Amino acid sequence: MDHLTVVDHPLVQHKLTLMRRTKTSTAEFRRLLREISQLLAYEVTRELPMTTKRIQTPMQEMDAPVLDGRKLALVSILRAGNGLLDGMLELVPSARVGFVGLYRDEETLEPVQYYFKVPSELDERLVIAVDPMLATGNSSAAAIDLLKEAGAKDIRFLCLLAAPEGVARMKEAHPDVPIVTASLDERLNEKGYIMPGLGDAGDRMFGTK
Ligand code: URA
């Protein structure tokens, strides 16, 4: 997979435009995020290994394609990652789920871990880390560090929007982790927000300020 894949499917792009608008309500934002996450999940799982299984149709026996290997691990980077996770789980209901919680230390500006719980045998699973906004890339890179420390070897990063700064940071820290996103936006502003972006993804999906 390329290091960066922008999913330019018309349905993804249309739904993303609706999500960006200030006037889009919390309920609508959440519904659109769930829908887009399923379309992005389709793209990020495109190259999953397959095998065949002997089955009986009403007409005859056949060797039919099925997913091979261990169940996927979806890892939500709290808290906004949960918005992407919900939709993906509808598409991949048997996936195992992990959570990484990080906050930014106001003095050092470094990400600090406050929660970490991931599925077993991480080294044998495809691990998809999800966070809607790849902004500076600092917390995303730190989350991937933690997943690698826990044994993950095959990791993909799924986000809704990416800033060029965040993509560059991830490429430098984790060149082996492909990024799938719905849009590569223009830049970060001085407060670390993605421009034109959609504001604070967590606040918009949970209705907080
Ligand atoms: N996190 C967000 O929620 N929005 C941004 O624009 C950047 C980081």
UniProtKB/TrEMBL annotation:
5-phospho-alpha-D-ribose 1-diphosphate binds at R79, R104, D131, P132, M133, L134, A135, T136, G137, N138, S139, D200. PANTHER family: ADENINE PHOSPHORIBOSYLTRANSFERASE, URACIL PHOSPHORIBOSYLTRANSFERASE, CHLOROPLASTIC. The gene is upp. The lineage of its organism: Bacteria, Pseudomonadati, Pseudomonadota, Alphaproteobacteria, Rhodobacterales. GO terms for molecular function: GTP binding; magnesium ion binding; uracil phosphoribosyltransferase activity. Allosterically activated by GTP. It comes from Shimia aestuarii. Its EC number is 2.4.2.9. Its cofactor is Mg(2+). Keywords: Allosteric enzyme, Glycosyltransferase, GTP-binding, Magnesium, Nucleotide-binding, Transferase. The keyword Protein biosynthesis does not apply. It is an enzyme of class 2 (transferase). It comes from the Bacteria. Uracil binds at I194, G199, D200, A201. Signal peptide: none annotated. It catalyses: UMP + diphosphate = 5-phospho-alpha-D-ribose 1-diphosphate + uracil. This is Uracil phosphoribosyltransferase.
